[in-house]
Amino acid sequence: MTSKVNKAKESHVMSLRMDHEMYEELIELSEKYKVNKSQLLKRAFREWDSIKRHALEENLIIVGKPFFAKLLSLVDSERVKKLGRLTARNLGTKIRFQLAENNTDITIEKFLDFFIEGVGKKSFAWFNRINYKFTEEKNFIIFGNHSLNQNFSLYVMEILQYLIKDFYMYNIDNEESRLSSNSIHLRFKKE
After folding, report:
1. Fewer CB near the terminus (10 Å): N or C of the chain?
2. Span 72-95, pLDDT tens digits
């Protein structure tokens, strides 16, 4: 009988047929990410499987950024804010459930790391670049740029404002925060 450890190390060779354009793109991505072609294909499969499984489990519809940007451009700012708060409430409920289920808590730093990883280039790619930093006063700033529109910046601000106040008692500093059609700069202060 084969042990589980041996099964995990077992590998299989497969062949794959693709057209010339796809093969050239594979080579280009392989060079860009500095991994060999088989590693890139394995990673792509795992990511696709993870996204697909998550979408099915959570009953999600995945839409492209241009489509979402167009939808947001058709909605007035008050409705965008409401949509952001609704999204935040739904996310907050899910986060609370997972924390309770795992009997754990999450620090503000871990929350911000998780959020930034989730919306950054390596995951859902809402942002081209996003990060945060703490100030000497123990407040923090979230800053990033994207390629959508002003309403997207407003939408993200509402999500973060709601979740961070609800979980960590930080308020957004409206005087020190800025939004534009392609960036956010949000300052949060402890209550």
Report:
1. N
2. 999 999 999 999 999 999 988 888
> How far apart are the C-alpha atoms of 37 and 75, rounded to whole Å?
43
Question: Residue written as tokens 């099915």?
Answer: 56
First to last CA, the chain: 60
Torsion of CA 100, 62, 90, 177, to 10 degrees: 110
How far apart are alpha carbons 102 and 94 in whole angstroms?
Answer: 12
Residues 6+ apart with CB under 8 A from 174: none
Quote the pTM value. Answer: 0.75
| Averaged pLDDT score across all residues of the chain | 88
Amino acid 141 reads I
Q: What integer pLDDT is reported at residue 4 of this predicted model?
A: 60
Q: What is the number of alpha carbons within 13 Å of residue 51 lying toward its C-beta?
A: 14
CA distance 168 to 190: 8
Residues ≥6 apart with Cβ < 8 Å to 132: 112, 116, 140, 141, 142, 143
